[in-house]
Structures are given as C-alpha cells and as structure tokens.
Amino acid sequence: MRGFISSSLLLLLASNVTAFSLPRQLHNPTIQCRQGSSSCYSSTLPLADRGDDLRSNDAATTTVPILPAREPLSSFIEDNKDQFSLMSWNILLPNSQDNWWCHKQYSSNVAMDKRQWEHRQSLIKERLLHSAADIVCIQEADGDTFDADFAFMKDNGYDHVLHKKFRFRCATFFLKDKFMLDREAHKDRTLVTSLKSTATDRVLHIVNCHLSGGAAPERRLRQVHDGLQQIQKYINALELDLTKQIKFKRPSPKLIAKAEKALDEYKSAGIVVAGDFNSDGNTAVRKLLVEGGVEPEWREPQYPKLVLTSKERTHSFGSFVDAAELAYGGNVCDGDYSEAIPLVDGTRPATYVVPNLASLLFLPVAEQKGPPRTQFGRQIARGMAETLNLNDWCAQELDRAFDLVDLDGNGSIDDEEILSLLEDVYVSTFGGQIEQERNNFFKGFGKGSSDGLTKDQFVVRLQALQQDVEGERKAFGLARGLGLQKLNTTEMEGIFERIDLDGNGLLDEDEFQQLLETAYVAIYGGDIEKKRVEFFKAFKKDDEHDIRELTKEQFTERLLALHQELDGGRKGSELAEVRTEADVRKMIERFTPLLRHSLDEVFSQFSANDETLTEEEVNRFLIKTNGELGRGGTFRHVAAILEKKNELQDAPAELTREDWYGIFARELSEGKWWQVVFDLEVCGSSVRASHTSSSGDQFYQGWLDYIYFAKMSCVGVQDALTDSERSKVYSDGDALPNEWHPSDHLPVSAIFSWE
C-alpha cells in the first residue's frame, strides 16, 4: 500500500461523510491435477518450466527410490555424514490417562486389550526404535504423560523438544550424537526447532506441524506462514548482530567472523516442514510452500468464498518440494481427499485410512426443501456470529439475537434492520484493517498530532495519495462522479470540512475511525446488498414481490442456516445443522433401516416395558458404553433431555424411543460416527456385519501427512506399509487403527542429503 491508505478507500471516505497400492516403479513427476481441481503446480517440476519468478532451490527435482517399509532408515545411509533420516507421525493421542474414548475408534474385531495404551505404546516403541530415524516429528503427544509415554526414546539416545501448549502437542526428537539443539519456538500448532549437525555443523530448521482441522484453511495458512516467519526472524536477528559488530568503534575481526559464520549457517540451512496438515489437495498451505506465496484474491477450490488472508503471505526460502510427490509422482491436488480414488498401480498411498460408515448410517441426501444454506462465506458468517454473540446457538441466544436486531421492537426484522446488522458485521470483520489504516494515517506527525491532524496535515496525507488515484481507473472514475476531478488543495480542504464533525479544526482519531467504518461499509456495499437480498429471498414465494420482513421463526431459521456455514465445508456438512428439534427429526428421517434396527434392538435390551427408558435404565447403557457416568456426548444429551422433561412434569422423566433416536442424531451430527457404531456394537448389535471388504466405499482415505523440504536433496522416501500390511488393509478390510497399527495415521519417512 502506498501513501499509508489506499486511494479507493480514501475516496469512499470522502463520499460517505454525508488408493493406494504402492507403485513398483518410478514415475514422471509432472502430474496432471485430478479432474475438478484448480491449477496446482507440481512441487517437483523445475521452476524454470513454470513461468514464474521464484528462485529455484538446489534440491533435486528428479524421482527418488521408494524404500521398503519396516526397514531401519539407518541401513540406507550407512556412514554418509552428509545424509540424515526423518520420520513424521501422528501417533493418535495416548490413552494412558487422557483419550478415554480411544478404544471406540477400533473395529469391533480388535480385542480390547489391543486398544489399550500398554499395547499401543509397545507398537509405537517398536516402530520408532526399529526405524532408527535421526529425527522424529511426533503429533498428538500428551503433555501430562509425555515423560512416561516416551521414556524409551530418551533411553535410546534421543533428546527432544515438546510444545509447551495445547492438549494435542507436537514433539521433535533427535539423536544426540547426530544433532544438537540450537533454537526453538513454540507457535500456534507448530513447533519450530533449529538443529545443528554434530558431524558437519550444518543447520536444519524443522517446522513440526499439527495444523487446525475442519473448515479453517485460513488458520492452516497462517500457522505454516508463522512457522516460516520464525526462521526468517532468526536470520534477521543474525544479520542485525553482524551489522552491530561491523559498526562498533573498535570492531573485532574475530567477532565479525563468528557473526558471519552464524549468519551463513542459518541462511544456507536446510528446511523441513512436516506433520499432520489436516487437509490435502490444492490448499493455501501447499501454494505457500511450493509457489512461495498466497495472494489475498486466491481461494481454495474447496472453500471458494472464504477469504484466506487480507494481505499477501510469502516466504523467502524458494520453492519447497513434497517428498512423497518426488517418489510417487502424485501431487494430491484432488480437491477432496474423501472422494473415492481407484486403487491402481501408481497411486500415491494415503496416510489416513479409516472405516467409511456413512452408507451404513445414512440414506442419501434428498433434494433440499425450504430455505437454502447461506452463502456468506466463513469469514462473514463468523463475523455475524460474533456480532450477535452466538456461541452455543441455543434457543436463548437466538432469542437474544432477534431482540438485538429488532431495533424498533415490532416483533419482525425488516429490510433496514438487516442492512444495519450486515454493516456492523462488515465493520467487525475488517476491524483489524480499519485499526491499521487509522494508525497509519496519523503516524508521522510527532507530538503535534496528539489531539488530531490539522487541515494542513490532512492535505499532506491526501497529496501523498494523488499518484495512486491517477493510477487507478476505478478510483479516478469514482472521484469524477463525486466532483473530485483534480484532487487539488481546494477540493482537499473541502473534504476536511466535511470530515471535521465537531468543527474544531482538527481531525481526531474518533472522527477518522467513524469515517473508516463508513468507508468499509461503502467498499463492500455490493456484497452487503447481495447478502441482504439472500437473507430474505428464501421466504419469497413465486407470486410475491420482494419480502421486506422476517418473523422471529424465519429469522431464527436463517441464523441456523448461517451456523452451517461455520460447521460445514465438505460433503455431508449438512449433518452439522442439528440445533433444534426440527433438525433432529430431519436427521432421524435419514437413518438407514439398519441403523434404526440397531437402535431399536439396544433400546429394547435396556427397557423393561419396551416403550420407555427410565433414568436408571439409560444409566446402565451409559456405563456399558462409556465405563462410567458423567463423560461423553451421549451422557450430556441424555441429561439435557431428562432435565427438560423434569421441569415440565412431576413424575420421574423417561426417554421415549423418539428421544432415543434424537440422542444419536445429535452424536452423528458432531461427526462421531465411529462412537455411535461402537456403542451399539458393544451392546450386542452387529452394525458392521454387512460392511464387507468388497464395498467400493469401504474406507475414508486421506493424504494428510507430509514432508516438504527446501535447500537440500531428498535421496529416498520410505513406504509406510509392507505388501503384507497393505493386503491386510485393502483386501481384508483391516482399517486403522488396528491390532498391529496403533494410530489412524501412517508415518511418513524420508532420507535427505545436505549436498
């Protein structure tokens, strides 16, 4: 931005005062994107062939060997001091103390003792120690039990850094005889460590990631960008130190040489970004790493309406290469990792393979009737939720939201009230930008500006923007329409008179803040009008003119549809919209006959009269499924229903069969499909009996785990499964986790060379 504030913004200010078999051979790394995805560069394609201006790294851009699974990585390196190995693995949160529900994620054929931490820990220990990786990046470590959970790593020569925050933590282990810790930084869901090789003095920066899940691509982008920026901050600090050494009155050649060496080590260091990215396809994270930046106007194909960043996010480390793409020749730009991909030779192996239970539990989604989903996009939807203070989306909050918007108190929401709400939402959503614009406009005038800007100072600001206006056709056209054809001193002073609301000859920050808010409303006026129309259009009948008022029921329905914008994002997201009894009934209507039969079977098992469940009877079910009372979503849903019934009647409350269905509808709406299936099966119902290995949609598969690298070469990528293990998964239907694998994720491993 030039001149502190954009010219179009300033003019608007003035105008508004008034799959997965392993390939047995190497493949061409230049891969076409899967059908339906946006343009996505191969990370292995030399940058000169892309037509962009990015600086190429020294990393090799040819295919590399696929190393056999379950073999020690050290066996492929031997005594080569220029090479090292790295593994990354989301181990699934240890259930030694936390994660009491972990056993529910297993298939019913897995013995209960094989789901406990003692067995899981032995599998993790065997896998990590046998791989003998020089560096191990772990995701989902438990901070409270970490020392006991991973004591075996310390006993076998590993040092570590554990993230200081979060329930699901990252931890980076490294062999003490190969590396020593130089720096560390604990960022939002990333752990940044700078290690120095004991053999070569080369530095390696590692960004160990467990990025946010769900419909939050903007958070994932920011998290990786912040991790890379931390490395840049290290380099900037070393450059500053060198400058200081040189500028001393009596500079020390020895200290200057030391500072130069440290700076050179960090600038030439290799970089690895590895971990569970919780996404795949043509994502902003991939674009940032492979192409070097993400522009504000760029969108992820999966979230086309979501603004990912308000400013361009870049890094200065050149293009990163996806190690698995280098080996398998697949760049995972499929746009939706849950879609079925044929299991053919040459397909990049998935790193996340779990049972796909949707077809067992739900009928296909029928054509939607009634008000459609909102299309506000996640950013504006979140701004509206914050403006109306909607957290739980319960009846009380929705009633309060209606009262806040119903300014005239007439019991309906009219056109102008929705417009006022949307204007507040846009000001709230872009508040950070408004604050920055205001600060930029006032800075640079010293003490004299403490009470505001004088007319002369204000004109100076406008004159600094004249070049921008002349360079922007749209802004210049708007200026002519407002009679601001020349932006000369007379016009500028006239603008000041209109902005100086209290007439004291000074433009203070409050006046400018108010002006900025008005301007942002004007800038997004077209969007606001479209969203105002959409807010009403769902209730317009074919023979009616535009609707201009909403009842409380209609307004509430629009807010609940808006809530889906926050919870949704991929196929099946309509299941998240269970906030009212009407939503529960819609969910129940989608139950498959198999699910209904299983629910009825378990209901009858615990009910003495086969018509209702007493509190004692439903407690027996909860203890059977959860081990004890007081934990789990089913307990909370049961407690809420019983409490509500007890308020309305004197007799002890009981659950009807419809109440019973509703409990599981709410659980399923939260994505706990595996938990519902477990709870029914542990009570004797055979839900998965018909889910055979020949089912075409047997697995929900994802490419979530990555190793990206820059400024070094990859010399090999290790397969995660042996042929025998692959057969167990894809032929026998042994989804993850299982008796022989302790996590729903597979590890990813590679060998790198400094050369």
Uncertain stretches: 1-38, 46-61, 334-346, 367-375, 444-450, 465-484, 538-544, 567-577
**What's the alpha carbon Rg, rounded to whole Å?**
30 Å
User: What portion of residues is helical?
Assistant: 40-55%
> How many H/I helical runs?
27
Q: How would you sum up the major sheet? A: 7 strands, mixed
Number of strands: 21
Overall shape: it is: flat
Strand content: 5-15%
Terminal-residue CA separation: 40 Å
Q: What is the multimeric organization of the chains shown? A: single chain
Class from helix and strand fractions: alpha+beta
The neighbouring-strand order within the major sheet is: 1-20-21-2-3-5-4
Summarize model confidence as the mean pLDDT: 77
Short description:
With 755 residues, the protein is of the alpha+beta class.
Description:
This protein is of the alpha+beta class. It is 41% helix and 14% strand. The chain contains 27 helices and 21 strands. The strands form 6 sheets. It has a 7-stranded mixed β-sheet with strand order 1-20-21-2-3-5-4. It has a 6-stranded mixed β-sheet with strand order 6-7-8-9-19-12. Strands 10-11 form a two-stranded antiparallel sheet. The protein is flat and about 90 Å long. The N terminus is likely disordered.
Q: Which characteristics define this entry?
A:
755 residues, alpha+beta, 6-stranded mixed sheet
